[in-house]
Amino acid sequence: MVVATMVAELVIGFLTNSLALLSDAGHMATDALGLGMALAAMTVADRVSAGSHRTYGLYRLEILAALANAVLLLGVAGYVLWEAWDRLGEATTISTGPMLAAATVGLVVNIVSWRLLREGAKESLNLQGALLEVLADLWGSVGVVVAGVVIHFTGWTVVDSVVAGAIGLFILPRALRLGAQAVRILVQAAPRHIDLEQLDADLRALPGVVDVHDLHVWTLTSSMDVASVHLMIPEESSVHPVLDQARTVMRDDYGIAHATLQVEPVSHVGCREISW
Questions:
Q1: 15-66 residue pLDDT tens
Q2: What's the alpha-carbon Rg for the chain, to the nearest Å?
Q3: What angle do CA 74, 2, 41 make, to 5 degrees?
């Protein structure tokens, strides 16, 4: 559905000489590719289990697909803004009838796509990227319809370039934000919603814990945070209560269900030298 609409908008955009419609078609092309990559990445990640060479499976494919979506969006935004600026001073002839028909169909398709992706985007960065593309394209279609109506009744064709430029400016910050989120996960930065200093303090406050070091928290894929930490306890203390309490803090207070906890007696040496 999305691909068919994109092809129609592309062809009609060339025939009508509408940059706004062409920009909408280009953005819809990234929608189609982005949706395809999102579906493929999520399907492969769910089906491929961890193995000797993939200890975490292929969950990171979702993040790579999100980053690819961001790059595509930036490319489309850059092209549209360049062309819109280049055309501002040019007198153009635009056939508004086919332009309005194609933009209206595109608007309906984007509304349907947005409703289908809205819930899944709350849990997946990949689907969030696809939803952002669809949402931006939805508003792009609205802009093209408005431009078509204005040109039809006033003959003011410069509005076509203005709307195309607005579509590009609408896409740009969302693409940058999506790319930044994906890169943050790929470089294994700590999730923004987790206060590492507070987590460190909560672990130190556990009964039997005398020191905490080598604490690392990162995101494997959307809604899947993981952590590792070393906890030091007195020689005579039992390991099991400390492990259970630390796991409870990680899971219940910070949403970290997958944590690797190393419990060490205070006499143990060597770990601090290899921490980073």
A1: 776 777 777 777 676 666 666 666 666 666 666 555 556 666 677 777 888 7
A2: 25
A3: 65
Spatial separation of the C-alpha atoms in residues 197 and 270, rounded to whole Å: 23
- Cβ atoms 45, 126 nearer than 8 A: no
Express each pLDDT in 147-156 by its tens digit.
888 888 888 8
pTM for the full predicted model: 0.71
Between CA 201 and CA 206 the distance in angstroms is 9
Backbone angles phi, psi at 261, to 5 degrees: -115, 125
255 in the Ramachandran plot: left (φ > 0), alpha (ψ -120 to 50) or beta?
left
Task: At 267, list the tokens.
Answer: 């006499």
At position 213, the amino acid (one-letter code) is H
Classify each residue of 169-193 as buried b or exposed e, where b means 16 or more C-beta atoms within 10 Å of its C-beta. ebbbebbeebbebbebbeeeebbee
C-alpha 122/C-alpha 242 separation (Å) is: 34
* Cβ contacts of 165 within 8 Å, gap of 6 or more: 80, 81, 84, 85
CA distance 217 to 39: 27
